Amino acid sequence: MRQLFSSFQEKFQGKQWKEKRIRTITDRAFDRIRADADRDYLTFEDLYIAVLYVYNDINKFLPGRHNDPPSKQKLKAMMEEYDFNLDGLLDREEFAKFIQKLTADIVKSVGQNLLIALVVAPTVALLTKRATEGVPGVGKVVQRIPNSVYASIVALGVVLVQKSTEGHE
């Protein structure tokens, strides 16, 4: 199943799409901070504000649950790791690598949610529709519903179940 998913994802360039989307969000946050400070690097305080911008954009533009930004302590430790030239500041490329590492789990969960919503839910819907053929009363009603409408209803149900379980994690 994992090989099938990775093949499917490669064909539709899902990984590149997510990485490009994250890079766009990263560049926007860097430019927002840079415009305020008029420099090509971020201090730790700038970094913290930029991370808040990034997480705000992720929560607005990527599907899935709400993601909280990491603590200042975690950011401080990661900043030291991604400050390749050891000047205590992050330039645009260091910041981009920093954010890619910071958001890797979020990007992975977005891919899984898209797989469930776009592939698994409609497949399950069509299988359950076939399974209801022999059920008296219900089978005839379900068979009259067009496949696309039935798949959409089941997919909506899956999304609602996902949403209702998000708060309990």
From TrEMBL:
Residues 70-105 form the EF-hand domain. InterPro entries: EF-hand-dom_pair, EF_hand_dom. GO terms for molecular function: calcium ion binding. It comes from the Eukaryota. This is Uncharacterized protein LOC105061315. The lineage of its organism: Eukaryota, Viridiplantae, Streptophyta, Embryophyta, Tracheophyta. The gene is LOC105061315.
